[in-house]
């Protein structure tokens, strides 16, 4: 490809609105341009990388026995209503009407569509197991699109769906996809980790996220420093333990004035107590039911754990109006003593607390010297808090550490959540109807593009792993006005293409410094420069990753290139 007429609009300055390296470099290297918030055009370089990523995905999916299909992006509301997700998915679902006032959604995911397909086309156990997949554009109305294509409103995704006749069959399908994902991310040159995760709006159990380790990741990974345990912080278990509560004085509970002290830190400072002595009460709407969850003041409530505890579709903070009307309490001063109108649950860290501080359900009032069990009763104790760095590993004697990650893949065991709701059944060996047992498996293809850049760059630009690089070789003619340089470069361009290499040929009439800066910014694995030694038939080869250079005779280049590219 000749660079003079190739659409690579490189930039010298860092765009002001680009917060993370991948977004900055994708704009500067001419990979993307923004159309609107969260909406991007992928330019030729990005498109070539995306095609290589997709080729890797297809190879591994096909190897695992999955079959590629392509489903509509526009979904009729009726199939989402069958599963109940039309009402519970939330504002991220982009909804619209056609000219006949029929309601549709732009697909953020395809569980309903694929279940409807298999429901109509597969009737017998003899046709199962079956796994289908697609690579397609998805739409989610993100509240705050950010970080370029890492959190966009339109993106490319690979989603696969398995259908089995038994839980054991699902386990096998899940294993195959899990291993395929490991191969895909390894081939893309990524440092990643598979972690236990929550299934979120998709539903199901036994889920894993594949996290690319990166400081800009929006997800926190809790991992053990001694074993292989790793989980998203939302999912990470906290083992029940002796919390060594502060020994109480036995004093009776007392109400005290605490003007404007609404937060744990404000209250701790005002009363000169440790946050460990404070019981934090969080009022929640759990599918319409009012729940108050208690957690020790030095910990944070994990709302995902509350959601899973109740098997709920939705968990939200109770608004101030309902706190006053239904709990008879004052926002910011909620406490468990004398509280009515709510299910009262607590984290294990609250059990046995003495001389504790809690809200008194009145403005600017708290109780001190509160003893759990004496002054109020908890309906049930559960693991409700967020894990913290330094906690004990739930699997071994190790210690939990934290790392940041970018989620690039997610695998779920759906079970019969969708097949039962939509009547996707098969006839078993005895002629009885059974619901298909499903799994689903997603990869953010455009997000992978950014994640690769986050892990593969330096101060000069992108450093593409060869497997996904837009071109193998960046051929540069330093001076196009020099006949010897131009002619040798033209000859090499033809020979390299004939030998099967992908070549970007910089034939622009630009200064050498501009060409070299663009080459470093674009990040193609190997640069071949035709310069002042063209008359001697010598070119310079430079590896982008290491910066190592080597002068080579032009007529030996084709034979030497495989060795150089192995090092790239």
UniProtKB/TrEMBL annotation:
Work out whether the entry's keyword set contains Nucleotide-binding: yes
What Pfam family is a match, any one? tRNA-synt_2b
What does the record give under GO molecular function?
aminoacyl-tRNA deacylase activity; ATP binding; catalytic activity, acting on a protein; proline-tRNA ligase activity; transferase activity
| Record localization | Cytoplasm
- GO terms for biological process, alphabetical: prolyl-tRNA aminoacylation
Q: Where is the Aminoacyl-transfer RNA synthetases class-II family profile domain?
A: 48-465
Name the family the entry cites: Belongs to the class-II aminoacyl-tRNA synthetase family. ProS type 1 subfamily.
Report the protein name in the record: Proline--tRNA ligase
Recorded source organism is Caldalkalibacillus thermarum (strain TA2.A1)
Q: What is the lineage of its organism?
A: Bacteria, Bacillati, Bacillota, Bacilli, Bacillales
């Amino acid at each position: 490809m000749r660079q003079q007429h190739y659409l690579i609009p490189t930039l010298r300055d860092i765009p002001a609105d680009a917060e993370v390296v991948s977004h900055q470099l994708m704009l500067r290297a001419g990979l993307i341009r923004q159309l609107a918030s969260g909406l991007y055009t992928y330019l030729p370089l990005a498109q070539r990388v995306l095609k290589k990523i997709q080729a890797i995905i297809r190879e591994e999916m096909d190897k695992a026995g999955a079959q590629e299909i392509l489903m509509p992006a526009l979904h009729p509301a009726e199939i989402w209503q069958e599963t109940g997700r039309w009402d519970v998915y939330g504002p991220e679902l982009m909804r619209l009407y056609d000219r006949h006032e029929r309601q549709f959604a732009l697909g953020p995911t395809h569980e309903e569509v694929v279940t409807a397909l298999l429901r109509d086309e597969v009737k017998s156990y003899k046709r199962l197991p079956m796994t289908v997949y697609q690579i397609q554009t998805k739409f989610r109305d993100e509240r705050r699109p950010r970080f370029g294509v890492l959190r966009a409103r339109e993106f490319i995704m690979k989603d696969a769906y398995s259908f089995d006749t038994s839980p054991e069959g699902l386990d096998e399908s899940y294993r195959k996809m899990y291993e395929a994902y490991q191969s895909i991310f390894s081939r893309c040159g990524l440092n990643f980790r598979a972690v236990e995760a929550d299934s979120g709006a998709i539903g199901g159990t036994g889920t894993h996220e594949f996290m690319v380790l990166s400081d800009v990741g929006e997800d926190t990974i809790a991992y053990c420093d001694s074993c292989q345990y790793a989980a998203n912080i939302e999912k990470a278990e906290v083992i029940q333990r002796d919390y060594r509560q502060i020994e109480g004085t036995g004093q009776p509970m007392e109400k005290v004035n605490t003007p404007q002290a609404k937060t744990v830190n404000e209250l701790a400072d005002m009363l000169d107590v440790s946050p460990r002595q404070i019981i934090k009460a969080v009022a929640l709407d759990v599918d319409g039911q009012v729940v108050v969850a208690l957690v020790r003041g030095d910990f944070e409530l994990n709302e995902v754990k509350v959601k899973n505890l109740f098997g709920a579709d939705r968990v939200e903070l109770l608004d101030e109006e309902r706190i006053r009307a239904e709990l008879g309490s004052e926002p910011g001063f909620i406490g468990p003593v004398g509280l009515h109108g709510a299910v009262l649950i607590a984290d294990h860290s609250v059990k046995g607390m003495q001389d504790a501080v809690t809200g008194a359900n009145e403005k600017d009032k708290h109780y001190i010297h509160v003893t759990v069990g004496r002054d109020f009763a908890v309906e049930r104790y559960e693991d409700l808090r967020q894990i913290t760095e330094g906690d004990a590993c739930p699997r071994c004697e190790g210690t939990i550490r934290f790392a940041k990650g970018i989620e690039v893949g997610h695998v779920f065991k759906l079970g019969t959540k969708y097949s039962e709701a939509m009547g996707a059944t098969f006839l078993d060996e005895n002629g009885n109807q059974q619901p298909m047992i499903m799994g689903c498996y997603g990869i953010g293809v455009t997000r992978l593009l950014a994640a690769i850049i986050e892990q593969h760059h330096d101060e000069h630009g992108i450093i593409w792993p060869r497997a996904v690089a837009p071109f193998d070789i960046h051929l540069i003619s330093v001076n196009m006005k020099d006949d010897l340089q131009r002619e040798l470069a033209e000859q090499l361009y033809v020979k390299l293409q004939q030998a099967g290499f992908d070549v970007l040929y910089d034939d622009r009439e630009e200064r050498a410094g501009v060409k070299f800066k663009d080459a470093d910014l674009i990040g193609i694995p190997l640069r071949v420069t035709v310069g002042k030694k063209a008359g001697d038939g010598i070119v310079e080869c430079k590896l982008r990753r290491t910066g190592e250079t080597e002068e080579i005779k032009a007529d030996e280049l084709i034979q030497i290139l495989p060795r150089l590219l192995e090092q790239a």
